[in-house]
Amino acid sequence: MGALQDTEATRRWFNLLAPGYDAVVPSLFWPESLQQAAIDRLELASADRVLDIGCGTGETIDHLRSEIAAVHGLDLSRPQLETAADKAHLEDARFVCGDACALPYADETFDCVVSIGSILYWSDPVEALREAHRVTKPGGELLLLGFNRRSPSWWNPVQNAQDGIAEALFFRYDREEGTTLVRSAGWTDPTHEVTGPVWGPELVLATTAQKAESGSH
Ligand SMILES: C[S@@+](CC[C@H](N)C(=O)[O-])C[C@H]1O[C@@H](n2cnc3c(N)ncnc32)[C@H](O)[C@@H]1O
């Protein structure tokens, strides 16, 4: 378990980061082009209701709002949410403070759930993905971006050092582990794409999955 998979430690960390977050973190780890390419894989309709889990300062919601009317953002950190809510262009989004592992929404509320760069901090990723599944309508979609567990490189000691640090701090998974993870939370048809920022093109795993039409999974 990564050191930052502790809910209170994560909350304190993102409370502290909030004032400078937008200037540093998205461009470093979750750049606009990466987020947009992932969102483009979704089949969104303008009337869809979408939930962004771990929405932070609203970077992802900014991409989603051009495609759909109703975006809800949930995050553990109030200061992150306050930054998001203060952005004039996000005035139509609804923000809630809460934990991914206990979503404060009724069953089958959303057409789609997205979560970018948040699963790495979740204390119980399977439970959180089960919660995401519960609040999604039958036939709905999941988009999840997390850290890829890369194989050790025989020629790149810098990457191996980065991965050693990431392993100590975060929850990570490779394609196979990602498939097991989303399936065990009830999702079907997972697909994965390895992606990442310019300095780490294999740092990120972008996963999509579906909620079965019957809702029986
Ligand atoms: C790296 S930021 C990503 C923010 C945003 N998705 C983006 O792309 O800019 C991770 C966010 O996940 C939130 N987070 C971490 N653990 C969470 C949890 N258990 N429940 C809800 N939000 C969580 C953090 O507070 C933080 O805002």
UniProtKB/TrEMBL annotation:
Source taxonomy: Archaea, Methanobacteriati, Methanobacteriota, Stenosarchaea group, Halobacteria
Pfam families in alphabetical order: Methyltransf_11
UniProtKB keywords: Methyltransferase, Transferase
Alphabetized GO MF terms: 2-methyl-6-phytyl-1,4-benzoquinone methyltransferase activity
Membrane-spanning residues: none
Name by which UniProt lists this protein: Methyltransferase domain-containing protein
Domain MPBQ/MBSQ family SAM-binding methyltransferase profile residue range list: 2-210
InterPro entries: Methyltransf_11 (IPR013216), MPBQ/MSBQ_MT (IPR044649), SAM-dependent_MTases_sf (IPR029063), SAM_MPBQ_MSBQ_MT (IPR031164)
Gene Ontology BP term (one): methylation
